[in-house]
Amino acid sequence: MAERVVKCPQCNAPLAPGRFARSTVCGYCGTTVQIDPSAVSVARYRQALQEWEDPARHGYSQWWTVGTGHWAPGPLIARGEISDVYAAERARRPTERILMKVLRDPEHAPLLEHEWRMLVELQAAIGNEAPAFLTHLPQPVAHGTLRGGPYEGRQALLVRQTPGYLHTFEAVRRVHASGVDPRVSVWMWRRILETLAVLHRAGYVHGAVLPPHLLVQHGEHGVRLVGFSCADRVKGARLRAICTRYEDFYPASLLDSQRPTPMDDVRMSARCIISVLGGDPVRATLPRSVPGALATLLERAAVGEEGEGERDLAWTLRERVGEVSAAVYGHPGFHPLVMP
Predict the structure, then answer these.
(1) Which residue did the predictor score with more confidence, 133 or 139?
(2) Chain mean pLDDT for the chain
(3) pTM given for the model
(4) Cβ contacts of residue 221 below 8 Å, gap of 6+?
(5) Which of 32, 96, 113, 274 is the most buried (most CB within 10 A)?
(6) Where does the Protein kinase domain start and stop, copy by copy (predicted)?
(7) CA quadruple 297, 299, 301, 305: dihedral, nearest 10
(8) Which domains does the chain have, with CATH numbers?
């Protein structure tokens, strides 16, 4: 029996409506398509799909392939400890924008593979408990060996690109060398603690809450945590790698034990905030421009004295930051980070 299939007249995406359906909605562009009663053979459908997925037919002259997907590379946007991060888009129409981490040294392939497993696990674990929060985590798309292009044979990991998250805490510190407005640091820290609270409740630790792994949303009050190659389940977690450029951000107890805990994540988050405030994350000291109550809270959290023994440490501290902010600044206001 012939399989009934159609192509969307709006975007040419292949569709497969139910057997008795009179209409179907295109999952790519949202167009409602009325079903023509004439049948399309499987062979014709497969040919149409192959043509649709051919980058050359969409005007692309170069692309990199991972698995069955073809991706048109964009600019290099970051250079991490073990990989280079490129912007890219699916080489067809309609397209999809992603970030592609390309491993530089095959010796680190286990870290990239572990990051993929963690991202997939977290989608399932957090999706059951807090599905609305999934958009705050990197969305895994594909991983595997690159075919084609200058990096053929290297390992790559692809995640969906979320618009607006443009600046790492590294970049913020370079632009605001004397420190950001302390009111900005309040929502920055609260966003990080919210992410950590959800991770910890799901039974995971991040293990590398560092300036290059924190992205600030341009013009809004958003912070995204990335860099999950050191993430692990709380039970049995071990530190798989150390970012040597930011070794001072790791608590000494973590470097000694090599066993990351929720407390370690929280301590590193406080050190990152101290850094963007123009302070010294190693000695946990802050400039006088930071109100005393906020400075004390940050200093205590950075050395592990704030919330010690709390069962839901990250969320408890998040609430405490809100209380301190209300006492110092009054009602919450909109204070976006200004970056060039």
Answers:
(1) 139
(2) 91
(3) 0.84
(4) 187, 191, 334, 335, 336
(5) 274
(6) 71-340
(7) -100
(8) 6-52 (no CATH), 64-160 (3.30.200.20), 165-329 (1.10.510.10)
